[in-house]
């Protein structure tokens, strides 16, 4: 298994991975929504604001994780949000997701990212260092439909203190349907 952030030229395979994985787990409508989200993220996000990590086995993309910048207008810290992540249905439960995300978090730490947020199942994301966080500590771009799924972790030695100002996500995530 190889992990990398070299996604350029692989966009179609990545979109297909997300579409198929979410179709299998959540149904065709969600599969199409998430596939389209990832297409939009890769097409419209400026390079420094986007990381797409892939897990590859025998030349096939079997996992993907997308991180995009969340800018706080009165805060100097660099914040990224993880969404979405997928591992091929037939290869789930073998640790690929956790290894891919640990690799991704280390790369972001090395790049100087201060904080990573995500929005998902705390029981899964706590395995890779995320803990519940409040909207007061880290304002989200939209009112969260499931605030119990708002999670964060510091990639530095500093604890997360309140992020100041309004948050602005990348254009592809700028839709309340994702929040
Ligand atoms: C969520 C996902 C990325 C995890 O990747 P993975 O490679 O299967 O996960 P790992 O093998 O690293 O970890 C597996 C463990 O996490 C648990 N787990 C997997 N998905 C979970 C979920 N959605 N919620 C809670 N726990 C989960 C498994 O039960 C397993 O537990 P065990 O080790 O005690 O048996 C993958 O299952 C997936 O693509 N699911 C469908 C899409 C999705 O829901 N994405 C996340 C939302 S953006």
From TrEMBL:
Q: What keywords were assigned to this record?
A: Transferase
Instruction: Give the Gene Ontology MF terms in alphabetical order.
Output: acyltransferase activity, transferring groups other than amino-acyl groups
Give one Pfam family, short name only.
Answer: Acetyltransf_1
Identify the domain of life. Answer: Bacteria
Q: Which residues belong to any copy of the N-acetyltransferase domain?
A: 1-156
* Protein name as it appears in the record: N-acetyltransferase
**Top-down, what is the taxonomic lineage of the species of origin?**
Bacteria, Pseudomonadati, Pseudomonadota, Gammaproteobacteria, Oceanospirillales
């Amino acid at each position: 298994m190889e992990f990398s952030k070299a996604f350029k030229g692989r966009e179609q395979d990545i979109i297909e991975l997300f579409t198929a994985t979410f179709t299998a787990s959540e149904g065709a409508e969600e599969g199409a929504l998430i596939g389209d989200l990832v297409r939009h993220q890769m097409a419209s996000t400026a390079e420094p604001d986007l990381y797409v990590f892939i897990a590859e086995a025998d030349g096939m993309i079997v996992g993907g994780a997308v991180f995009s910048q969340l800018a706080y207008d009165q805060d100097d810290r660099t914040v990224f949000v993880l969404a979405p992540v997928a591992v091929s249905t037939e290869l789930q439960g073998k640790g690929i997701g956790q290894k891919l995300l640990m690799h991704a978090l280390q790369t972001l730490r090395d790049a100087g990212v201060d904080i990573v947020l995500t929005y998902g199942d705390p029981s899964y994301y706590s395995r890779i260092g995320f803990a519940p966080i409040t909207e007061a500590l880290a304002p989200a771009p939209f009112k969260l439909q499931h605030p119990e799924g708002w999670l964060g972790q510091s990639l530095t030695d500093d604890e997360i203190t309140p992020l100041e100002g309004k948050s602005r996500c990348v254009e592809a995530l700028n839709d309340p349907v994702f929040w």
